[in-house]
Amino acid sequence: MKYRFIVGFGLVWMLLFSACTPQATPAPTSVPVQPTQPPTPGPAQPKTIPLNVFAAASLTASFNEIGKAFEAKYPGTTVTFNFAGSQQLAQQINSAAPADVFASANQAQMDAVVKGGRIDQGASKPFVNNRLVVIYPKANPAGIQTLQDLARPGLKLVLADKTAPVGQYALNFLDNAAKDPAFGAGYKDAVLKNVVSNEQDVKSVLTKVTLDEADAGIVYTTDAATDTAGKINQLTIPDSLNVIAVYPIAVVNDSPNLPSAQAFVDYVLSPDGQAILTKYGFIPINK
């Protein structure tokens, strides 16, 4: 009996020992790793070309339409306009403003930028013409009937400053009238005594008259034509006294987008560009 006890105890001990012994973990089956494929490149995004066009205030409506037509013809090009008096634009460009194209309302301001070194000598081209007209409020509080009435004492006249092209053109008109016997030598001085405000650009002159803040003003015919609300009347200046404004345009020589800048100038000079300018009352350069 003692022998059976010893045998049984040994069997129990062996079973317990085998249960406590850690079992070997089978090695995991290896799975081949697939190499990562680089993403397939999509179509290249078109480069956006910004174009900064500095243009005379009188070109606002026509150039906004030209800008849209140009962008449609040259996808990826974005045209941004800076409209102001040509003398203001010339000062900005000569002060290193980021400009690609300059469209001036007279040659004098274009020459100022040439002298400043940012437009090459001989690079500018005339692209359109304009002419002057006298405007006055629809109610006509001063009773204006003729050009001679501008010299009547007490009349409130608004002109652009002589540094603005339209202001100088107005002075040229007065010079022409003073040489005409129908007006007399004292006509210019009498008219200038009636000036109550000298504005920075033609748009400001138009606004003053439209708001009945003046009895009369001298603007371009194209600006007078923007009065679709019928708030002003016009008094024609005859050809013998009028001044034809010649507008030049040029590429700024340090433009970072010279090909696009030249393309814009070419478009303005093209039949399509000239048609848009004519639509807004400008005189095509070929006439």
Describe the structure.
It is elongated and about 60 Å long. The protein has two domains: about 120 residues, Periplasmic binding protein-like II (D-Maltodextrin-Binding Protein, domain 2), CATH 3.40.190.10; about 100 residues, D-Maltodextrin-Binding Protein, domain 2. Helix 2 links the parallel strand 1 and strand 2. The strands form two sheets. Strands 2-1-3-10-4-11 form a six-stranded mixed beta sheet. A five-stranded mixed beta sheet has the order 7-6-8-5-9, sandwiched between helices. It is an alpha/beta fold and about 290 residues long. It is about 35% helix and about 20% strand.
| Biggest sheet details | 6 strands, mixed
Radius of gyration computed on alpha carbons: 39 Å
Shape: elongated
Strand content: 15-25%
In total, the number of domains comes to 2
Low-confidence region ranges: 1-31
CATH architecture of the largest domain: 3-Layer(aba) Sandwich
CATH superfamily of the largest domain, by name, is Periplasmic binding protein-like II
If strands are numbered along the chain, what order do they take across the biggest sheet? 2-1-3-10-4-11
Count all strands and give the number.
11
Q: Gap between N and C termini, in Å?
A: 139 Å
Output the structural class.
alpha/beta
State the name of the first-level CATH class of the largest domain.
Answer: Alpha Beta
